[in-house]
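hey can u check if this looks right to u? its 304 residues, i copy pasted from the old doc so theres a chance i mangled smth
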Amino acid sequence: MSGYVTALSGMKVVGELAAADARVVLVSQDFGPVRGFTERFPERHLDVGISEENLIGVAAGLAHAGKLPFVLGMAPFVTMRGFEQIRDDCAYNRNPVKLIAPFAGLEAGAWGATHHAIEDIALLRTIPGLTILSPADPAEAQRAIRAAAAIDGPVYVRLGFLRPIDGYDAPFTPGEIVTLREGGAATILATGSCVQTALAAHAALREDGVAVQVLNVHTLKPLDRAAVERAAHDTGRLVTVEEHFIDGGLGGAVAEILAELGHGRLRRVGVRDRFCTEVAPYPELLRLHGIDADGVVSAVRELL
């Protein structure tokens, strides 16, 4: 499912939360009526148009007045244009604004580099008190939105192109990495849409007799440091996978832990230090930048 479709399914969850809590409101960025919410609570939905700084400011003001605002806005524009407002109006003032951000990563690739959200994790990781959630499939996205409502403080829910993971229904506990596959040769830590890629790489490696562990890092901040340290001690070889620059995102966060730990080797799969100028279908962009199963398999083999 595209990030936008996933976000719309998440709006049903927001509607359910609104039915149980009169404080819940929705502020959106030029999306028009939002299915699952607007028809039920028209007086509690504000669309401010294409003005992301104002979008965050309005939501923060509503939170300051006692509301529980959810924001719906495209990941690249909410995080880059609205960064100061997220930092100051939301996090610094401890306003519980919940940012639901579709089109994360390279999903909007056909619209060009201006619509990529491949630095959003790096930006938001620097903000104290902000929680960053990056669910792995549509059902987990709904669980993440429910969890976001209960978290004290601002939350960013990063939604990329998510496909259902068969049989996956683990409880969503913010800050706890989920083990999806066991293996001792190496550990693949993936987040968001890249969890499916990691599972495909696991299957390919298994055919060659290589058993790797796959971890779903659905919370990027606070990161589950204990799980990363266990992986470093248990397998000693770690591969991170993300639709993001390799600097500052999941790969950067894991590298920081390993540097302090003084143990473990790391390969980072993601966008290298350049703009993604190719205008191509989403799967082709992933292939071009090595963020596919073949790219992950190659990274594991380099460590082995």
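DSSP finds eleven helices and twelve strands in the chain.
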